[in-house]
Amino acid sequence: MTPEDILSHKPRVLTQKQRESYFENGYILLERLVPEDWLARIRTATEDAVEASRAIESSNETWDLDEGHSADAPRLRRLSSPNDYNAEFWAYASESILGDAIADLVGPDVKFYQSKLNFKWSGGGDEVKWHQDISFWPHTNYTPCTAGTYIYDCGLEQGPLGVLPGSHDHDLYDQYNGKGEWVGCLGPDDAAKIDMKDAVFLDGPAGSVTVHNCRTLHYSAANNSDVPRPLLLNTFSAADAMPYCFNPLKSRYDQTLIRGEPARWAHHDPRPCQIPPDWSGGYTSIFALQQEEDWNQAAAE
Ligand SMILES: O=C(O)CCC(=O)C(=O)O
User: Fold this and answer.
1) Domain of residue 201, CATH code
2) Which numbered atom of ligand 1 lies nearest the CA of 133?
3) pLDDT (tens digit, 9 = 90+) per residue, 195-225?
4) Measuring from each residue's beta carbon to the nearest atom of ligand 1, which residues come in under 6 Å?
């Protein structure tokens, strides 16, 4: 679906102005979108996951542990595929107002693609370097977008998501390093050209939702505050967007329709997309890739 097709459908929860702003800027912040009852459910699921992580000693497909993690003092970077880990997360992604807001941005027929819960722990939780999502998981068009839900209040000092408005309309960047290895972020020369004064940081109270398009450049700073910053990320697309590479965070719900009808025709956008490595042998997380950590290579083999 093109933005014009999408905008021609009656919105469910967003205003027409909000939708137009998303297409113009490549992102939107929906303050306090999530009602208290859903927020309570995903908070409990998050706290249960942190409890369970006490028994985990090394990073694996599901858990990405931060340096210093222990049973006594958990420190997590990411829980991969939370929707597969706890049905409460999947209920939120598929049944709540979130799916209605996404339908307003990708069209009435919406598919789920993948999920992750990025913790960015207090006292130095890693930055996420400037990158674009779509070359991690190319699709036939650029409707895919990722919704980030702040499970607790997120202030500027906790490393909220930062975006570069309008960057979704530019060419995609190279996310391989000079040695031809995938690093999942812009090289130092490209990153240095970004003027941080142009970045918009999407801090917000608990229950706020950020949505960024799959082409939008985004970044988040380290969390040097005393409070962790769990951000629940769900990626969706229009039903007519077909992935053509292996899903790095393969989920049992990949391609599940959460609103509307299945597509009979794929929509192809002619703009090119960089191809990632073949993830069928394994994937770790964006944190490990961008830090060029060894356990990524081990898992990939
Ligand atoms: O956790 C964040 O701040 C951003 C995460 C992100 O961009 C990603 O996982 O692709």
Assistant:
1) 2.60.120.620
2) 10
3) 999 999 999 999 999 999 999 999 999 999 9
4) 116, 118, 120, 128, 133, 161, 218, 220, 231, 233, 286
